[in-house]
Write a structure and sequence with these properties.
Strand content: 5-15%
Number of helices: 16
Number of strands: 16
Radius of gyration: 21 Å
Mean pLDDT: 95
Largest sheet: 5 strands, mixed
Structural class: alpha/beta
Shape: globular
Strand order of the largest sheet: 2-8-7-6-5
Low-confidence stretches: none
């Protein structure tokens, strides 16, 4: 029998959810153009679309919101957040943003010029989109082990240092405005990055004079994986590991809707005072004044508390345990996933489950649509809908190596019985996987098409 970790919390408030009939699910999907982003949330039973902003805040976060200072400039709420930023990350220069993509927007608008390249292990969707929107080229240099879904490597999110060095030498440091890395590696299965690799990445970027930025939205989960898996860190706290990570970097951005367990918020932080001033000027144009950055005072206070709560090791043990429980349950019913389980989500390998559907017919989209129709479970495609793009030189379509459906688990929201329902639903669906067919796109914008594209089944 699979063992589910005991929740390190009690439930004080509940939100009703309803399972609508198969007929109503089909009607909802047709109306949504078979895009799960377009579904009304009330027509979803178990919502695993994203872990971004969907978690449950704690009593301490709700209490902190009552102390929110809504002053336009210099609010006490900002000062409390600034204290957390200094103690956790060591950053004095930072601005709040309403979420991570706002930070990406500001950073790329300042630094990325047409024709430039930004390397990372794997860029996720909004980072990729913001770089492309400036005429830049997001470049993924993750270690090859990331593309072996069954390999049990402890740090499959690591960047390939040889690839990185070769890429910089070929491209030229002058054409790379900054280098980055995502922790954990969301596009590659939520896999962590080791501190050894982070040091090597930092050394390589800095050897060539390239500023090093971290996409830190799941820094606490990554730090806990380091504690569990990397020799020499078992006796260090998650906080201490996080401090070691951020000593390596020149800047970071974060969608705090993940590991800070808030419903809205983020930040952009840098060490360079001149760049910070430029960021402030951009922030005022796009987001708000530098001490609130598009957030209310109560949001700033909830974020200041949530940054600490996200590093609580009892919570993190439960968090990773619940994800592993879902992954183990899916394996037991014959559903292939990226192994080992990541921190925030289970990634079903749609390419292996639906080998008869080619990239151009979107196997991940086919599986995510079928999962909703089967049991009103909403996941998200991470494959050729999200990441396929034309080659800038040849115009030929470049498809990602992995065709996945991500089941992102909201923090402190769902129980064991909910996970069991997802396992049963996917288990039933896998038995008829051979009957599923692909999709074609009937509408899509140029960038970030997965959010608003419309489809029809083939």
């Amino acid at each position: 029998m699979l063992k589910h970790p005991a929740e390190p919390f009690r439930i004080k408030m509940v939100e009703p959810i309803h399972l609508i009939s198969p007929e109503k699910r089909m009607e909802a999907m047709q109306k949504a153009g078979y895009n799960l982003f377009a579904l009304p949330a009330e027509e979803v039973f178990i919502d695993l679309l994203t872990d971004s902003g969907t978690g449950s805040m704690s009593q301490h976060q709700w209490a902190a919101m009552m102390t929110g200072d809504e002053s336009y400039a210099g609010a006490r709420s900002y000062l409390r957040l600034a204290d957390a930023m200094q103690k956790i990350f060591g950053f004095e220069h930072f601005v709040p943003t309403h979420q991570g993509r706002a930070a990406e927007n500001i950073l790329t608008s300042l630094l990325v010029k047409p024709g430039m390249y930004v390397p990372s292990n794997m860029h996720f969707d909004t980072t990729d989109g913001n770089i492309r929107a400036r005429g830049g080229h997001p470049t993924n240099l993750v270690a090859d082990i990331a593309f072996d879904p069954t390999a049990h490597h402890p740090f499959k999110g690591n960047m390939d240092i040889a690839k990185l060095r070769s890429f910089i030498q070929k491209t030229g440091a002058a054409n790379i405005p900054f280098g980055s890395i995502t922790i954990t590696n969301n596009a590659g299965g939520g896999q962590p990055v080791s501190l050894e690799n982070l040091r090597a990445v930092a050394d390589t970027y800095h050897e060539f004079g390239i500023p090093f930025f971290i996409d830190a939205c799941r820094f606490a989960e990554n730090s806990y994986f380091i504690k569990l898996r990397e020799p020499g860190y078992q006796d260090k706290s998650v906080w201490q590991i996080a401090q070691e990570i951020f000593k390596l970097v020149d800047g970071a951005w974060m969608s705090a809707k993940k590991d800070a367990i808030v419903n809205m918020g983020g930040f952009l932080a840098v060490r360079n005072a001149d760049l910070y001033q430029q960021i402030c000027n951009e922030l005022i144009l796009r987001e708000g004044f530098v001490t609130y950055g598009g957030l209310s005072g109560r949001d700033l206070d909830a974020l200041a508390v949530g940054l600490w709560e996200g590093m609580d090791e009892a919570y993190l043990a439960y968090r990773l345990g619940q994800t592993a429980y879902l992954a183990d349950g899916l394996h037991a019913v014959g559903v292939p996933t990226i192994e080992p389980a990541g921190g925030h989500a289970v990634y079903v390998d749609a390419g292996r489950l639906l080998p008869h559907i080619p990239h151009g017919e979107f196997p991940g989209q086919a599986l995510s649509a079928a999962l909703y129709l089967e049991g009103a479970v909403r996941g998200v495609e991470i494959g050729s809908v999200m990441f396929a793009h034309p080659d800038p030189d040849t115009g030929e379509m470049v498809y990602p190596q992995l065709e996945l459906v991500r089941l992102a688990i909201p923090r402190r929201v769902y129980t064991q019985s909910h996970m069991d329902y997802v396992i049963d639903t996917l288990g039933s669906l896998s038995k008829k996987a051979g009957t599923l067919r692909g999709y074609r796109i009937t509408y899509a914008p140029e960038l970030l098409r997965h959010f608003t594209a419309r489809f029809e089944p083939l």
